[in-house]
Every structure is written in structure tokens, then in C-alpha cells.
Amino acid sequence: MNKYENKQTISFYSVIKALSAAFDLVSDEVSGHHRKTTFLALLIAEEMGISKREIKDLVYASLIHDLGVFYLNQRIADLSFDNNSNLHQEVGYLLLKDYIHRKEIAEIIRYHHVDWKDRLGKSSAGINIPRTSHILHLADRIAVLLENNHNILNQINIIDNIISKLACKKFWPEAVAAFQKLKNQEFIWLTVISPERIVDYLDKLDFIKEEKITLDEFLLIGKSLSHIIDFRSSFTATHSTGIACLAEQMATRYNFDKNDVLKLKIAGFFHDIGKLAIPLRILNKPAQLKNKEYNIIKIHPYYTYQILAQIKEFPMISEWAAFHHEQNNGEGYPFHLAGKDLSQGSKIMSVVDKFTALTEERPYRASLQADKVKYILSNMAEKNEIDEMITTDMLDNYNFYNNIRINKQKESRSYYQEFKKTIASKRDQFII
């Protein structure tokens, strides 16, 4: 890389904060949970005098600590206070360990449900469990105990009694003692029930925001996140991989500079992050969607845009990722932008997304043959729904692009199948 390219960095906090917001889309039951947990964990750690480096990693981990719940058929019920399954902590670790630049964050998540009394037990023997995992465990369980429909200040003693009884058993005694020193400060609880205020609080902490990552590191996070999005449905398990590899190829073909090639590939991995808001019954429906169901599908690019727009350094990534259902004639969705308002990167993503969707197997149909794909895309270009030049280029080089897609998606499907086997082999280990 040259000196200019080395300057292309991004705030790691802004990326993690955006992912945390994305997880809120999955269910009202988890909306705000990661931020509540993060705020409590931060205050407890500060009260204990934990180092700023450890606190920073704790904040990052807390903001996404339950990402494993959103994999495949993991249930929101797995987050309940007394649930005896903690498989999702291992799933989260496996989803992150090879894709995040600081392995400490994945390790904190991996052990955030290990009870204090079990830290030296058979399942943890020889493992150096981060003390921040124990802080996260406590903060997470406090957040789960909160009842949104009751006065927050009337819940303090109830929560304190539950937590106190479990000190030395479930929770680290020193962390519990720190919590008890903090619990009578009303502002803490009033902030906890206002997740947007928590973000304001975190945004003011310079030591949290100072860490930067490169575009290559951002790409790895995007790849990891695409697994969480796509693995929710066996039919879309490799979709984002197909989009990302084709977007990269076309950007190179159209002489994007190296950084923009990388950004378009990142946008490919992130383009369907808004689908976390779509129920699995719709994603996996083995038939054409009804109008009301299709209207639910149509919300996903809007959420993709809102999530990625939080990453201020590279606004083009949010546009390239989110505008893949816009049309040159202005009749796309959700923003109804016309061709004059769409960048070349957005137009590439639109063509690539449709090409990949048509050539993939879907719940309601098999993958389409080349002649059918060419007919559909050519017809869309004639109607000015997608860019004619980009479409012609893709169809004139159909085998070249399709072989790249097939090979990359084969690699991704192999990873998906191995991941499923790994999780299945660990399931009994994490049921107490």
C-alpha cells in the first residue's frame, strides 16, 4: 500500500456501535439490551479501577456480546436470566475470532456466561478467563432483570437482592461490591432506560473512540457480519459472499482505485444487514411472497442505510450498500432515487445483487439457467430499471462472472456447513 492508502482508517467504535444498533432490529425483546449492558459494565469496571485498555475492550465486547444468539435458530429466550444454555457465547466467539483485529474482544464474549464458582471447574480448567468477562456477565444479568414497564427506581432493591444472593456463586464478588456502591445513584438507572442517552455518554469518551482500524480490517468485520446475516437462512447462507466478490470484480473492471474497490466489496458484505429486521418465516418462505410480506422485505435497505450511515468516515459505503433496490427510472425502493442520483458504485451493486439472486437457489425456486437470467436482466435494462452498460458488460462476460460467484460461494457454503457441524458438536457442552 502507498502512503495515501495507509491513511484510510476508520473508527473501530463507530463500526461496533453500528453493529450493536443492527442487532436491535431482530426483536423488540433485545432492543437496547446491548447498550444497557455496556453502560452498566463500563461504570462497574471504572468503579473497580480496571485499566482503560481493559475497559475499552469491555465496551466493544459489551456492545455486541449476544451476536451469537442471532445465528441460525438460536432463540431470544436464550437471553433470559435463568436460562441454562450459554451456547450463544461460544457461537459469538467463533463468529468473531478470525475476523476481528483484537482477539481479546472475542475472548471476553466467549466467557461472559461462566459463573464465578465455575471459573476453575472442569469446563474452564487451564483457561485464563478475562476478569472483564465476569464484569460483563454481571452487567448483562442486571440488564436482563430490568422491567421496562415498571418504575425503574422501584426496581433497584429487588435487583440488588437477587444479585447479592448470587455473589460468590454466579457473580464475581468484587464486581458485585462495585455495583452496590453505584446502585443508589439515580442517574445511572434513568440513563439505563434511555439507550439513546447511553450512546451520547459513550460518544464523549475519547479513549473509547480513539482506536482505528484499516479498510482491510473493516472488510474482515464485514465478512463476519455477513455470516450472521446470511446464516439465518440456509438459502441465503452464501448470498453476501457472492455480492462482495462480484462487486470487487466489477469495480476493478471499471478502474476504481484500490481503496474504492475495497469499499465496494465491504458494501457487498454489508448490503443486507437490514435483513436482521426481517422475520425468518418470510426469509425462508418456500413460495412467492404476498404483497404484505413483500412490503416487510422492502424495509431492509432503509435499515441498511440507517445502520451504515453511523460510520461517518466513508458515507459512500452506506450508499453503495443500501441503494441496491433503487432503479434508474426512480421506481425502486425505499428512497426512489433516479439514475442521476445514483453513483456508479450503487448501480454496480444493483446489477450484481440481481444477477446473484437469479443465479442462486431460493426457497421457492431452483437457480435459473443462463438464458433465463440473461432475458430477465436484459428486460430490466431495457425498462431502465438497472444500468444498461453495466448489465451488458455482465451478460457479455456471463461465464466469467458466474464462475467467480460459484467458486466463492462454494467456499462460503463449505465454511457454513463446517460451522454448523462445529456448533452441533459443542451443543451438549454448553447446556448445564
Can you describe this structure?
The protein is mainly alpha-helical. It has two domains: 10-212, Orthogonal Bundle (Hypothetical protein af1432); 214-422, Hypothetical protein af1432, CATH 1.10.3210. 59% of the residues lie in helices and 1% in strands. It has helices at 3-6, 12-23, 33-48, 52-63, 87-96, 103-110, 131-145, 156-165, 173-182, 186-192, 195-203, 206-209, 215-230, 239-253, 258-270, 280-283, 291-297, 300-308, 315-322, 344-359, 370-382, 388-396, 398-426, and strands at 9-11, 212-214. Strands 1-2 form a two-stranded antiparallel ribbon. It is elongated and about 70 Å long. The protein starts with a helix and ends in a 6-residue tail after the last helix.
Q: What is the count of structural domains?
A: 2
Please state how the strands of the largest beta sheet are arranged side by side. 1-2
What do we call the CATH homologous superfamily of the largest domain? Hypothetical protein af1432
Low-pLDDT segments, ≥5 res = 1-6
CATH class of the largest domain: Mainly Alpha
CATH architectural type of the largest domain: Orthogonal Bundle
Could you give the topology of this structure?
Layout: H1 3-6, E1 9-11, H2 12-23, H3 33-48, H4 52-63, H5 87-96, H6 103-110, H7 131-145, H8 156-165, H9 173-182, H10 186-192, H11 195-203, H12 206-209, E2 212-214, H13 215-230, H14 239-253, H15 258-270, H16 280-283, H17 291-297, H18 300-308, H19 315-322, H20 344-359, H21 370-382, H22 388-396, H23 398-426
Antiparallel strand pairs: 1-2
Helix pairs in contact: 2-18, 3-4, 3-7, 3-9, 3-11, 4-6, 4-7, 5-6, 6-7, 13-15, 14-15, 14-20, 14-23, 15-19, 18-19, 19-20, 21-22
